[in-house]
Amino acid sequence: MPKKNNRNTRGRIIAAAWKLFYENGYEETTIEDIIYESQTSRGSFYHYFSGKDALLGTLASVFDEKYAELEQTIDPEEDAVQILCRLNHELFAMIEDRISRDLLARLLSTQLLAQGERSLLDRDRIYFRLLRRIISRGQERGQLRRDCSSNDIIKAYALWERALLYDWCLCSGDYSLVAYCDRMTPLFLQSWRG
Predict the structure, then answer these.
(1) 17 near 55, Cβ under 8 Å?
(2) Which end of the chain is more exposed for a tag (fewer CB within 10 A), N or C?
(3) pLDDT tens-digit readout, 114-140
């Protein structure tokens, strides 16, 4: 039982931090603000995080929460390409609506400079486990190519999504991420059709 409470405490801190980062900006958000919003203690905060900067790497957790929520909406009979397009749309809509582009750029840059943990590439994330299930099922049903491994398709899809996010940040968000992805992701995925 304590393990679940620990996970809930960490999750509350992460959720509170990203809410405040979006509402107030990263620089204006203090650790005290996060502690108050998460209804935790200073000790709990420092048990999980060395400081505010350590929270930047948790954006992958925010993404995974969205994927866990979306996983509940997947119809097992739905076409794999349609599922991937819908997941892409929903995640990018959340990013455009709730994640500051500056914070996203910070996360992406920390992943480039990281010497150790690269949270976006963690194969144990919900994201990669969900992709593995969708893509493997799509291959079994002949919806996706079988002349490539599921790992090759997963890697290409994850690379595609990261490239879209990097480009959107590089272009200072001067176009709608969701509209562009809704147009281009189906075209990208057609090359993986079975």
Answers:
(1) yes
(2) N
(3) 655 566 677 788 899 999 999 999 999
